Design the sequence.
């Protein structure tokens, strides 16, 4: 199956600043991917590259087998919900659906109209009068009405109240159950943990971690034991983060084999701690976890 | 029909919580052999979790022999866990409600009630084993 | 896309249409007065018309610049400043087709309304121009069909400034400035070279009653040899005994020149060449508009990233 997104050493520079650098990752089709990182880490840049609003300065990015945004066909396959939910203030809800119908050949008007009714929007109302949650639902309707194969959302729930957020995510999961590939950027790890089966961590414009969530959690362990030099670990164990007190060492390691050394207390790591550890990792190191841990950059 | 709930703070992984809730429902007789479990789409539409989580839970139930997936139709319960003790449930529930009311009137808060129940339950268990 | 382009533009189009209708109706209604006034009256009665003439003429001069700034620039800057381009450019339509449709819709309305205004005004000014000079003066820009060319040029220039600068105020300012510079340059420097002139013999002294636009002239003698103007004057004053005491020196010089065959050969754009020059300048501005539009599309695809 074609990967939904394939990026090879992608970089984007603005003037002298690199917003994204040497980023390599693969998003499998049918996955729900959480893109995580601090503000300014490069999340929006990566997503804008994936929909063709930006061109890479170096490297290559392929979406559903083609160059993003290059032709009308490529544009039709990807639905995008940009940050801060752009909508035309002078148009009504119904007119946005008409916009979708006129600009997209595969538009499903019946489904879009039904969805608008289900989320309680009035087609005659101007978008300038809608609440944040309503705007997000309208924008989502427009993004999925064209029946895309991949849906990309840039912090879609950032400004929503908890109830609106829950409803929005529930709707996304229904679409995921139908096979839609979804890439969703967020800095709310609780949402990511609930909803995503793949994870990409960006920090400082670089990919720090990427892979299937279950694999990542299975291959990282926290080791606590008497104070020692971490270089004495075995070859297939890589230290991601370490802290030492006078008597004790705590290590977060990536390992594919069980840790048999009885002097360590081994426990699982939570997703939040894992993400934070990779975000804090030194700039020179980045790991992309697939079947094996791969060192990049 | 089962209503699923996920508690993100419980420390138990979501799919295990779903499995547990199905077993609970079976034990209480809320769901019986032959009943259809909610579809993946129905579950995620209510609970906003990844569809794979539901699939994993249903696969686990299949593995434990409690359910069976029929392609194109849905997932169905294949075994009841409720036993003859089900008849006693109504009366026991009534007693429990009464006991809880008395505990609250005596001034116990939630934590005290839970602690009292657990310690009695455990000591009762030990006696049972012995 | 046609629907969206029209939907976004329809309020401005309605406003412009209303204004144009008012102007055209006013012109139609008052034309009879103009004819009457120029048929019978003297200068005093015409002063009232001169005020209107100046007002409407200025309006017609200004409209193309305004179209560039108010229709052309915001076409893009509005989408950048509201950030709605992120919605428009992720539908199943390329940026090229999106921009082309928007410019086409505005362009068609522009051509129709400016043509109506300009041609109605030209028709209305007919009696005035019959005794005036519309090819040799700045009035040329307020008549005929050149305003259509100016408007298309203004529109595409506004769009280009909007694409490059992305901010409304800056793009409007750049568009107006660029428009003014090009218009003035063409008017002062280029216009005289657009079409061929006609050689006409005119009297060296006194008025010729020619009308038209005299680009250059030189004085020649009866045999056709060029002579300088001062040499001609010396010859004439000597030959016809014209002194400071002669009444009507100019008249005497003119008679004398006529008798001796001294005259001027002038390179002229005659009044009859009015429409030819109009077509040439229209063609020039339409070509400019096309080039600017091409640059705008290139910038949109390769630099707006």
Sequence:
């Amino acid at each position: 199956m074609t990967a939904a997104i394939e990026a090879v050493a992608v970089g984007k520079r603005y003037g002298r600043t690199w917003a994204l650098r040497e980023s390599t990752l693969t998003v499998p089709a049918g996955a729900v991917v959480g893109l995580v990182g601090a503000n300014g880490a490069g999340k929006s840049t990566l997503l804008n590259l994936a929909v063709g609003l930006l061109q890479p300065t170096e490297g290559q990015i392929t979406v559903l087998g083609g160059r993003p945004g290059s032709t009308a066909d490529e544009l039709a396959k990807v639905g995008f919900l940009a940050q801060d939910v752009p909508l035309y203030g002078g148009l009504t809800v119904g007119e946005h659906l008409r916009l979708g119908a006129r600009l997209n050949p595969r538009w499903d008007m019946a489904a879009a109209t039904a969805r608008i009714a289900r989320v309680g929007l009035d087609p005659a109302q101007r978008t300038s009068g809608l609440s944040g949650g309503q705007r997000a639902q309208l924008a989502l309707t427009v993004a999925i009405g064209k029946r895309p194969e991949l849906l990309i959302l840039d912090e879609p729930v950032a400004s929503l109240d908890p109830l609106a957020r829950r409803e929005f995510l529930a709707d996304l999961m229904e679409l995921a159950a139908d096979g839609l590939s979804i890439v969703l950027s967020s800095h709310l790890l609780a949402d990511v943990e609930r909803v995503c089966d793949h994870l990409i961590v960006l920090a400082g414009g670089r990919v720090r971690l990427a892979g299937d969530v279950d694999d990542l959690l299975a291959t990282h362990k926290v080791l606590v034991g008497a104070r020692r030099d971490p270089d004495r670990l075995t070859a297939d164990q890589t230290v991601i983060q370490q802290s030492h007190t006078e008597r004790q060492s705590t290590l977060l390691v990536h390992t594919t084999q069980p840790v048999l050394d009885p002097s360590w207390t081994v426990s699982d790591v939570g997703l939040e701690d894992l993400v934070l550890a990779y975000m804090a990792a030194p700039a020179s190191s980045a790991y992309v976890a697939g079947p094996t841990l791969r060192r990049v950059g | 029909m089962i209503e699923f709930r996920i508690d993100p703070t419980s420390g138990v992984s979501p799919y295990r919580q779903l499995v547990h809730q199905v077993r609970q429902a079976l034990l209480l007789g809320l769901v019986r052999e032959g009943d259809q479990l909610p579809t993946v789409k129905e579950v995620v539409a209510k609970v906003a979790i990844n569809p794979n989580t539901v699939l994993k839970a249903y696969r686990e139930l299949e593995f434990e022999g409690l359910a069976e997936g029929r392609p194109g139709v849905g997932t169905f319960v294949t075994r009841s866990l409720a036993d003859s003790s089900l008849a006693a449930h109504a009366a026991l529930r009534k007693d429990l409600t009464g006991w809880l009311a008395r505990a609250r009137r005596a001034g116990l808060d939630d934590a005290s009630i839970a602690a009292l129940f657990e310690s009695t339950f455990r000591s009762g268990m030990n006696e049972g084993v012995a | 896309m046609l629907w969206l382009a029209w939907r976004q533009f329809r309020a401005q189009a309605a406003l412009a249409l209303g204004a144009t209708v008012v102007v055209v109706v006013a012109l139609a209604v008052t034309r009879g007065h103009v004819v009457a006034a120029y048929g019978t009256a003297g200068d005093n009665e015409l002063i009232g018309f001169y005020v209107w003439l100046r007002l409407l003429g200025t309006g017609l001069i200004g409209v193309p610049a305004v179209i560039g700034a108010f229709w052309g620039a915001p076409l893009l800057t509005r989408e950048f400043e509201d950030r709605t381009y992120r919605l428009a450019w992720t539908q199943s339509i390329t940026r090229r087709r999106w921009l082309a449709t928007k410019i086409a819709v505005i362009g068609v309305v522009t051509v129709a309304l400016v043509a109506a205004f300009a041609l109605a005004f030209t028709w209305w000014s007919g009696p005035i121009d019959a005794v005036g000079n519309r090819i040799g003066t700045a009035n040329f820009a307020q008549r005929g069909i050149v305003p259509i060319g100016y408007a298309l040029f203004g529109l595409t220039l506004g769009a280009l400034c909007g694409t490059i600068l992305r901010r409304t105020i800056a793009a409007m300012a750049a568009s107006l400035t660029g428009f003014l510079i090009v218009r003035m340059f063409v008017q002062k420097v280029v216009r005289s070279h657009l079409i061929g002139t006609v050689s006409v013999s005119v009297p060296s002294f006194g008025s010729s009653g020619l009308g038209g636009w005299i680009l250059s002239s030189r004085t020649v003698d009866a045999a056709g040899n060029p002579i300088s103007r001062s040499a001609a004057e010396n010859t004439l004053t000597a030959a016809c005994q014209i002194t400071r005491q002669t009444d009507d020196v100019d008249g005497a010089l003119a008679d004398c020149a006529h008798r001796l065959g001294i005259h001027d050969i002038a390179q002229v754009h005659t009044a009859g060449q009015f429409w030819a020059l109009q077509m040439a300048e229209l063609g020039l501005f339409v070509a400019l508009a096309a080039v600017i539009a091409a640059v705008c599309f290139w910038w949109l695809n390769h630099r707006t990233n």
Summary: The first strand of chain C starts at residue 198 and ends at 203. Residues 113 and 146 of chain C are 13 Å apart (CA to CA). Chain C has a mean pLDDT of 89.
